């Protein structure tokens, strides 16, 4: 399998992984959301000396999804995604819907068509870029986490349903990495169409609540999973957060609804104390 489609390749993980897969000899279709990104990515690829086929593909656009069916995709990397920062009781309806359209509905509709083509060939690979927040949650990223929990359910179910047809399914679960994605997500409140006085929180005082890692481990793991060099279904980076992630899943079973009621949880307080783009020391 050589033909790879990577969505959301205009920046961040998708951009770098597209470059690395091309360097490995794969035929890479790097999909970007808007036409303005096409030439920019072509120039970046040329400067790096790699060959990319750059296509405009907005996963929420039915016409864009349909044209992708003509590309002969053998490996699909569902990387496109957005982060809408804010409390689950404040985020406007339109922003919630867009979160799910970009992160869940659009990618799944794209995958439906391509996966059926893979079934006819008897082989294929689908890689879902989920998140650590598909397994855990943090304050002010709840709607994003909900979308990634949905991705987790879809991917795991898909791995069961498509196994008999020879289709591989895997997930990537990045933690907090310093690509600009998380900090941009905490700026979206500035364009909300709501009544600011009714918000529960003042978002000018809040930032993404965790220090962020260098993204190199995600680049390496995501490239290897897409290339078929890693056989694991779930791939969480950084590995240093694995114990914490598993512990958080177990901790919910012992959680009490009245513990410390009326006080601010430490995880919420971190959003007040953290500065944007804070790296892990």
Topology, element by element:
Elements: E1 3-6, H1 12-23, E2 27-32, H2 36-48, E3 53-56, H3 62-67, E4 75-78, H4 93-121, E5 124-129, H5 142-161, E6 167-174, H6 181-185, H7 216-226, E7 234-237, H8 242-251, H9 266-273
Parallel strand pairs: 1-2, 1-4, 2-3, 4-5, 5-6, 6-7
Helix pairs in contact: 1-7, 4-5
Radius of gyration using CA atoms only:
19 Å
Query: Uncertain regions: pLDDT < 50 for 5+ in a row?
Result: none
Structural class: alpha/beta
Assign the CATH class: Alpha Beta
Would you kindly provide a written description of the structure presented here, covering whatever features stand out?
The protein has a single domain, classed as Rossmann fold (3-Layer(aba) Sandwich), CATH 3.40.50. The chain is globular and about 55 Å long. With 281 residues, it is of the alpha/beta class. It has helices spanning 12-23, 36-48, 62-67, 93-121, 142-161, 181-185, 216-226, 242-251, 266-273, and strands at residues 3-6, 27-32, 53-56, 75-78, 124-129, 167-174, 234-237. The protein is built from 9 helices and 7 strands; from the N terminus they run βαβαβαβαβαβααβαα. Helix 2 (36-48) links the parallel strand 2 (27-32) and strand 3. A 7-stranded parallel sheet has the order 3-2-1-4-5-6-7, with helices on both faces. The mean pLDDT is 97.
């Amino acid at each position: 399998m050589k033909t790879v489609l990577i969505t959301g390749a205009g920046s961040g993980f998708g951009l770098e992984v597209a470059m690395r897969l091309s360097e490995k000899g794969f035929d890479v279709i790097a999909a970007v959301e808007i036409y303005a990104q096409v030439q920019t990515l072509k120039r970046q690829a040329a400067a790096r000396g790699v060959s990319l086929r750059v296509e405009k593909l907005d996963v929420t656009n039915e016409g864009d999804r349909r044209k992708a069916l003509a590309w002969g995709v053998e490996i699909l990397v569902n990387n496109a995604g957005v982060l809408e920062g804010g409390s689950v009781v404040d985020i406007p309806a339109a922003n919630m819907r867009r979160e799910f359209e970009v992160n869940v509905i659009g990618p799944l509709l794209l995958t439906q068509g391509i996966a059926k083509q893979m079934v006819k060939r008897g082989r294929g690979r689908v890689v879902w870029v989920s998140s650590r927040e598909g397994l855990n949650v943090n304050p002010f990223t709840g709607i994003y986490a909900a979308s990634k929990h949905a991705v987790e359910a879809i991917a795991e179910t898909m791995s069961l349903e498509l196994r008999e047809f020879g289709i591989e399914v895997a997930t990537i679960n990045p933690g907090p990495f310093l690509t600009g994605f998380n900090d941009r997500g905490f700026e979206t409140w500035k364009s909300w169409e709501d009544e600011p006085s009714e918000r529960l929180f003042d978002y000018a005082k809040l930032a993404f609540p965790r220090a962020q890692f260098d993204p190199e481990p995600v680049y390496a793991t995501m490239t290897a999973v897409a290339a078929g060099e890693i056989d694991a279904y779930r791939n969480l980076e950084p590995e240093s957060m694995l114990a914490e992630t598993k512990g958080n899943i177990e901790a919910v079973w012992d959680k009490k609804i009245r513990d410390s009621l009326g006080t601010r949880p430490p995880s919420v307080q971190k959003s007040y104390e953290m500065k944007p783009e804070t790296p892990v020391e």
